[in-house]
Design a protein that fits this description.
This protein has 313 residues and is an alpha/beta fold. The chain has two domains: 68-139, 2-Layer Sandwich (60s Ribosomal Protein L30, Chain: A), CATH 3.30.1330.30; 147-312, Alpha/beta knot (3-Layer(aba) Sandwich), CATH 3.40.1280.10. The chain is 35% helix and 16% strand. The chain has eleven helices and eleven strands. It has helices at 24-29, 45-57, 73-81, 99-110, 120-127, 147-155, 172-184, 202-207, 223-232, 271-275, 294-312; strands at 68-71, 88-92, 115-118, 135-139, 162-167, 189-193, 217-220, 236-240, 246-247, 258-263, 279-282. The strands form two sheets. Strands 7-6-5-10-8-11-9 form a seven-stranded parallel sheet, sandwiched between helices. A four-stranded mixed sheet has the order 1-4-2-3, with helices on both faces. Helix 8 (202-207) links the parallel strand 6 (189-193) and strand 7. Helix 3 packs parallel to helix 4 and helix 7 packs parallel to helix 11 (294-312). The chain starts with 23 loop residues before the first helix and ends with a helix. One of its GO terms (biological process) is methylation. Pfam families: SpoU_methylase, SpoU_sub_bind. It comes from Corynebacterium testudinoris.
Length: 313
């Protein structure tokens, strides 16, 4: 027979004191599992080195190309607005949100760019310092083309081919500005040397105002060989330098396929490249001005050649 309580006593379901937290503290202290090894984290440099070693082990010659990481809230936002191709947006854990961080996240999400939260020390390692403001945009290596492809593609266009070859240009902002000018004035591409020259970086993308997404850039090891290849395909090679045989206002660049060779403001065109030019041309300007910035000089010539082409149609 069940034990009866005291007559008249109020029934209650209240239990006595329970020892412990019912496992809540134990579950709270339980970790998320072991931290993956660096080589197993796709965003880590060790992972890229591992993949590179695997490809080399298969007997494939692989040139090492690394992702670029743009850091800082304003630079990241600039890249996203310029539609610089990006593979991931990294945000350090515990980073305080503000309007710029929210804008970066919104822009990345609208373009389908993954937003990855990483420990702050990981972002420190990825950038080499702690000056990243808790945010970094990963830019994949630029996909260069080659001169053979440039020439073949231009042959299918209505207008004669027009290209710019850059020699001794080491500032990525100059490269970006040249790409923008070539695109603006109907050119078909840019050629840069593989060594001792600026490549297409995030800075180049920003300066090009997104035109680098549509204008092809070829990177070649030997510019003299490149110029010979252009000449073999019917191109006139025009080098820009002071004291040339022609000036811009006496040279007709509007009818035939043309390559414009531009050197740096300080060094100009190297000797071997100059010797492989068909014509050396200068830009008329006031005598007290010694030279023009490379991107400005390229823009002036491209604009004039584009005008001549319009006039001849």
């Amino acid at each position: 027979m069940a034990k009866q309580g005291r007559p008249g006593a109020r029934k209650t379901n209240k239990k006595g004191a329970v020892k412990g937290s019912g496992g809540q503290i134990r579950r709270g202290l339980k970790g998320k599992g072991p931290t993956p090894r660096a080589e197993d984290r796709e965003y880590h440099a060790a992972h890229k080195r591992k993949k590179l070693a695997e490809r080399r082990a298969q007997g494939r010659h692989v040139k090492e190309e690394t992702n670029e990481l743009v850091v800082g809230r304003n630079p990241v936002i600039e890249c996203l607005h310029a539609r610089v191709p990006a593979s991931a947006l990294f945000v350090a854990e515990g980073t305080g949100a503000d309007d710029r961080l929210s804008e970066a996240a919104t822009l990345a999400a609208s373009r389908g760019i993954p937003i990855i939260e990483v420990p702050r020390f990981e972002l420190d390692k990825m950038t080499g310092n702690g000056m990243h403001q808790g945010i970094g945009l990963q830019i994949p290596p630029y996909k260069y083309t080659d001169v053979h492809t440039l020439i073949a593609d231009a042959a299918r266009e209505v207008e004669p081919g027009m290209f710019v070859v850059l020699d001794n240009i080491t500032d990525p902002r100059n490269l970006g500005a040249v790409i923008r000018s070539v695109a603006a004035f109907g050119g078909h591409g840019v050629v840069i040397p593989e060594r001792r020259a600026a490549g297409v970086t995030a800075v180049t993308w920003r300066t090009s105002a997104g035109t680098a997404a549509r204008l092809p850039v070829a990177r070649e090891t030997n510019l003299t060989r490149v110029l010979k290849q252009f000449k073999d395909n019917g191109y006139q090679v025009v080098g820009l330098d002071a004291g040339g045989d022609f000036t811009l206002d006496t040279y007709d660049g509007g009818t035939d396929p043309v390559v414009i060779v531009v050197g740096s403001e300080g060094k100009g065109i190297s000797r071997l490249v100059r010797e492989n030019c068909d014509v050396i041309m200068s830009i008329p300007m006031e005598g007290w001005v010694n030279s023009l910035n490379a991107s400005v000089a390229a823009g002036v010539v491209l604009s004039e050649f584009a005008r001549q082409r319009r006039a001849s149609n």
